[in-house]
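Example 302.
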Amino acid sequence: MNNTHLLKMLDLDKEEILEILNLADQLKYENLYGIQHHVLQGKTLGMIFQKSSTRTRVSFEVGMYQLGGEALFLSSRDLQLGRGEPIQDTARVLSRYLNGIMIRTFAQKEVEDLAKFGSIPVINGLTDFCHPCQVLADLMTIREYKKSFDGLKMCYIGDGNNMANSLIVGGLKVGMKVAAACPQGYLPDQQVLDFAKDNPNFLLTQNILEAAAGADVLFTDVWASMGEEDQAEQRKKDFAGWQINDTVLEAANPECMVQHCLPAHRGEEITEKVFEAHAKEIFDEAENRLHAQKAVMALLMK
Ligand code: CP
Ligand code: NVA
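Predicted structure in complex with phosphoric acid mono(formamide)ester:
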């Protein structure tokens, strides 16, 4: 892996993504047989959280433990960062104690600054811009079920948010066709649209069924992300009908998978029926967070 950090999918090339996924597959397989690799023995990961989390926190903490190291949960409520200590100083201080930092925050710039001013690997555990750890787990799950990315079509329906941004980049980088259906006013980030615009495998549309046509994997995400709670009522109106339901599945390939990063809002972006019919794939996806992140930590922090 050439990168010293995991800040966004845009930074990774196809070979690096596959290197992470291959190691993740190996770690998952070996974990089944009780084989542990304590490659991070004696190392500590600091985990800064400025937003809530179930999966990210627990999977990083358990992953670090399984690799022989330890993880520290650092809520921004308790850190001086939360009282205005600059990220440049936080980065330089934490670099003296820790061997890696995972951060979940609002602005992507904060994550980039942590990497710039610190001297240890930084892993993005979600920003408003992107969610690379999630998308690595998603790609791992797609390959687990479909065996290869060749010729597959990914479809994302909903808010052009952190998940949309990372899925578009990740899907295109591994060679999938990617169709995104996002309402006007809720399009993916311009940086991502610029990255994708000349790629013949990319489609951006306002037509859900056009995006879903022949899809091999359908993704969606919540209508209002963390930090957008004050827009929730407006968004409920704007996103009405932007949902994965039976009609959308009928447009897709009969063998189509459904993925959701979770937490899910049944009855909003996905129906209860579709969610439960595809629960095995969705919870495999959640499990794969652990394996994909162990691979990332092993590659960056060893
Ligand atoms: N998908 C995901 O990142 O979940 P958490 O918010 O629970 O970490
Ligand atoms: N888009 C969601 C993803 C949660 C994992 C959010 O940012 O809240």
